[in-house]
Amino acid sequence: MTPLTLYIYSNNTDLHCISAFESIKQMIPNTPIQKLQRYRKFTFSFNETTTEKAQSHLSQLLDTSYDILNPNKESYYLDQLPRIKTTTSCSVDVLKQHTTDDNRLCQRLQFKYPTIPLQSLKQSITWTFIFSKKLSENDVNATYDQLILTTSRTSGLFVNPLFETASLYSIQNSTTQVNAKI
User: Fold this and answer.
1) Which residues pair with 115 in a beta bridge?
2) pLDDT tens for residues 42-91?
Protein backbone atom coordinates (compact mmCIF):
# COMPACT_ATOMS: atom_id res chain seq x y z
CA MET A 1 0.00 0.00 0.00
CA THR A 2 1.44 3.35 -1.07
CA PRO A 3 0.16 6.56 0.56
CA LEU A 4 0.22 9.92 -1.22
CA THR A 5 -0.75 13.28 0.24
CA LEU A 6 -2.22 16.08 -1.84
CA TYR A 7 -2.52 19.69 -0.58
CA ILE A 8 -5.03 21.64 -2.68
CA TYR A 9 -5.17 25.43 -2.61
CA SER A 10 -7.21 28.08 -4.38
CA ASN A 11 -5.58 29.95 -7.28
CA ASN A 12 -7.76 32.94 -6.49
CA THR A 13 -8.91 34.60 -3.30
CA ASP A 14 -9.82 32.10 -0.59
CA LEU A 15 -12.82 33.62 1.18
CA HIS A 16 -12.69 31.09 4.05
CA CYS A 17 -9.11 32.13 4.72
CA ILE A 18 -9.87 35.85 4.59
CA SER A 19 -12.80 35.43 6.96
CA ALA A 20 -10.73 33.39 9.41
CA PHE A 21 -7.90 35.93 9.36
CA GLU A 22 -10.31 38.80 10.00
CA SER A 23 -11.80 36.85 12.91
CA ILE A 24 -8.31 36.32 14.34
CA LYS A 25 -7.57 40.05 14.09
CA GLN A 26 -10.81 40.84 15.97
CA MET A 27 -10.17 38.18 18.61
CA ILE A 28 -6.51 39.12 19.17
CA PRO A 29 -5.96 42.77 18.14
CA ASN A 30 -2.13 42.62 18.34
CA THR A 31 -1.81 39.15 16.87
CA PRO A 32 1.64 37.97 15.80
CA ILE A 33 -0.02 36.18 12.85
CA GLN A 34 0.92 37.92 9.64
CA LYS A 35 -0.70 35.59 7.11
CA LEU A 36 -2.97 32.57 7.01
CA GLN A 37 -3.11 29.85 4.34
CA ARG A 38 -5.67 27.08 3.92
CA TYR A 39 -5.30 23.77 2.11
CA ARG A 40 -7.67 20.90 1.51
CA LYS A 41 -5.61 17.84 2.35
CA PHE A 42 -6.26 14.43 0.78
CA THR A 43 -4.34 11.34 1.83
CA PHE A 44 -4.74 8.55 -0.71
CA SER A 45 -3.76 4.92 -0.26
CA PHE A 46 -3.15 2.97 -3.45
CA ASN A 47 -2.64 -0.78 -3.68
CA GLU A 48 0.71 -0.37 -5.42
CA THR A 49 4.26 -1.30 -4.56
CA THR A 50 6.00 1.82 -5.90
CA THR A 51 5.42 5.52 -5.41
CA GLU A 52 5.78 6.12 -9.16
CA LYS A 53 2.83 3.85 -9.98
CA ALA A 54 0.73 5.45 -7.24
CA GLN A 55 1.59 8.93 -8.59
CA SER A 56 0.58 7.79 -12.06
CA HIS A 57 -2.82 6.67 -10.76
CA LEU A 58 -3.26 9.92 -8.83
CA SER A 59 -2.38 11.89 -11.94
CA GLN A 60 -5.00 9.94 -13.88
CA LEU A 61 -7.62 10.74 -11.22
CA LEU A 62 -6.74 14.43 -11.23
CA ASP A 63 -6.75 14.63 -15.04
CA THR A 64 -10.13 12.96 -15.53
CA SER A 65 -12.20 13.84 -12.47
CA TYR A 66 -13.48 17.01 -10.84
CA ASP A 67 -14.33 15.10 -7.65
CA ILE A 68 -11.02 16.04 -6.04
CA LEU A 69 -9.68 19.10 -7.82
CA ASN A 70 -11.01 21.70 -10.23
CA PRO A 71 -7.94 22.64 -12.31
CA ASN A 72 -9.62 25.86 -13.49
CA LYS A 73 -9.48 27.35 -10.01
CA GLU A 74 -7.27 25.12 -7.86
CA SER A 75 -3.69 23.86 -7.79
CA TYR A 76 -1.88 21.43 -5.54
CA TYR A 77 1.32 20.37 -3.83
CA LEU A 78 2.21 16.70 -3.67
CA ASP A 79 3.39 15.10 -0.39
CA GLN A 80 4.46 18.28 1.43
CA LEU A 81 3.74 21.95 1.74
CA PRO A 82 6.34 24.38 0.44
CA ARG A 83 8.91 25.58 2.97
CA ILE A 84 8.05 29.09 4.10
CA LYS A 85 11.01 31.42 4.30
CA THR A 86 9.94 33.45 7.30
CA THR A 87 10.69 33.69 10.97
CA THR A 88 8.09 31.21 12.26
CA SER A 89 5.15 29.29 10.87
CA CYS A 90 3.06 26.37 12.02
CA SER A 91 0.63 23.99 10.38
CA VAL A 92 -2.52 22.61 11.95
CA ASP A 93 -4.50 19.68 10.59
CA VAL A 94 -8.27 19.72 11.25
CA LEU A 95 -9.83 16.31 10.72
CA LYS A 96 -13.49 15.30 10.83
CA GLN A 97 -14.23 12.61 13.42
CA HIS A 98 -16.84 10.96 11.19
CA THR A 99 -15.48 9.72 7.88
CA THR A 100 -18.70 8.99 6.00
CA ASP A 101 -17.92 11.67 3.39
CA ASP A 102 -14.47 10.17 2.84
CA ASN A 103 -15.93 6.70 2.42
CA ARG A 104 -18.56 7.92 -0.05
CA LEU A 105 -16.00 9.77 -2.15
CA CYS A 106 -13.66 6.78 -2.15
CA GLN A 107 -16.49 4.46 -3.22
CA ARG A 108 -17.56 6.87 -5.97
CA LEU A 109 -13.99 7.05 -7.32
CA GLN A 110 -13.60 3.27 -7.12
CA PHE A 111 -16.86 2.85 -9.07
CA LYS A 112 -15.95 5.45 -11.72
CA TYR A 113 -12.34 4.24 -12.11
CA PRO A 114 -12.28 0.49 -11.46
CA THR A 115 -8.79 0.11 -13.00
CA ILE A 116 -7.23 2.48 -10.43
CA PRO A 117 -6.30 0.53 -7.26
CA LEU A 118 -7.50 3.17 -4.77
CA GLN A 119 -7.91 1.58 -1.34
CA SER A 120 -8.84 4.54 0.85
CA LEU A 121 -8.70 8.29 1.22
CA LYS A 122 -8.91 10.79 4.07
CA GLN A 123 -9.79 14.45 3.85
CA SER A 124 -8.85 17.25 6.22
CA ILE A 125 -8.16 20.96 6.25
CA THR A 126 -4.63 22.19 6.86
CA TRP A 127 -4.16 25.73 8.13
CA THR A 128 -0.72 27.33 7.98
CA PHE A 129 -0.12 30.28 10.29
CA ILE A 130 2.73 32.58 9.29
CA PHE A 131 3.95 34.78 12.12
CA SER A 132 5.47 38.25 11.80
CA LYS A 133 8.24 37.50 14.28
CA LYS A 134 10.19 34.55 15.57
CA LEU A 135 8.26 32.72 18.29
CA SER A 136 9.25 30.01 20.69
CA GLU A 137 7.52 26.64 20.60
CA ASN A 138 5.68 27.60 23.81
CA ASP A 139 4.34 30.80 22.17
CA VAL A 140 3.14 28.82 19.16
CA ASN A 141 1.47 26.28 21.46
CA ALA A 142 -0.24 29.13 23.38
CA THR A 143 -1.55 30.56 20.09
CA TYR A 144 -2.74 27.09 19.15
CA ASP A 145 -4.59 26.74 22.48
CA GLN A 146 -6.18 30.18 22.13
CA LEU A 147 -7.17 30.13 18.45
CA ILE A 148 -7.59 26.55 17.41
CA LEU A 149 -9.11 24.62 20.28
CA THR A 150 -12.70 25.56 20.95
CA THR A 151 -13.35 25.53 24.68
CA SER A 152 -16.20 28.03 24.87
CA ARG A 153 -18.23 30.36 22.68
CA THR A 154 -15.52 33.01 22.96
CA SER A 155 -12.42 30.84 22.56
CA GLY A 156 -11.26 28.92 19.51
CA LEU A 157 -12.13 29.44 15.88
CA PHE A 158 -10.99 26.53 13.77
CA VAL A 159 -12.27 23.35 15.38
CA ASN A 160 -15.78 22.27 16.27
CA PRO A 161 -15.07 19.86 19.16
CA LEU A 162 -18.25 17.88 18.50
CA PHE A 163 -17.25 16.85 14.98
CA GLU A 164 -13.56 17.62 14.48
CA THR A 165 -10.11 17.08 15.97
CA ALA A 166 -6.98 19.12 15.43
CA SER A 167 -3.28 18.46 15.63
CA LEU A 168 -0.39 20.85 15.46
CA TYR A 169 2.03 18.90 13.33
CA SER A 170 4.72 21.28 12.16
CA ILE A 171 6.43 24.29 13.68
CA GLN A 172 8.93 25.82 11.32
CA ASN A 173 11.43 28.48 12.40
CA SER A 174 13.86 30.11 10.01
CA THR A 175 16.58 27.73 11.25
CA THR A 176 14.73 24.67 12.58
CA GLN A 177 11.66 22.61 11.97
CA VAL A 178 9.87 20.69 14.71
CA ASN A 179 7.23 18.09 13.99
CA ALA A 180 4.88 17.83 16.93
CA LYS A 181 1.61 16.10 17.70
CA ILE A 182 -0.60 17.65 20.34
Assistant:
1) none
2) 999 999 888 999 999 999 999 988 889 999 999 999 988 887 776 788 88
Q: How many C-beta atoms lie closer than 10 Å to residue 66's C-beta?
A: 10
What single-letter DSSP state applies at residue 48?
-
pLDDT band for 180, please (50, 70, 90 cuts): very low
pLDDT > 90 fraction of the chain, expressed in percent and rounded:
24
Q: How far apart are CA 153 and CA 133, in angstroms?
A: 29
Strand partners, 33: 131
Coil, strand or helix: which one is 5? strand
Residue 28 to residue 156: CA distance in whole angstroms? 11
> Residue 3, SS3?
strand
- Supply the DSSP string of 97-156, one letter for each residue: S--HHHHHHHHHHHHH-TTS-EEEEEEEEEEEEEESS---HHHHHHHIIIIIS--BTTB-
pTM of the model: 0.84
Q: With the CA atoms of 15, 18, 22 and 27 taken in that order, what torsion angle do they form, in degrees rounded to the nearest 10? A: 90
Query: Amino acid identity, residue 176?
Result: T
Cα–Cα distance, 80 to 4 (Å, whole number): 10
Predicted pLDDT at 7: 95
pLDDT for the residue 153: 63
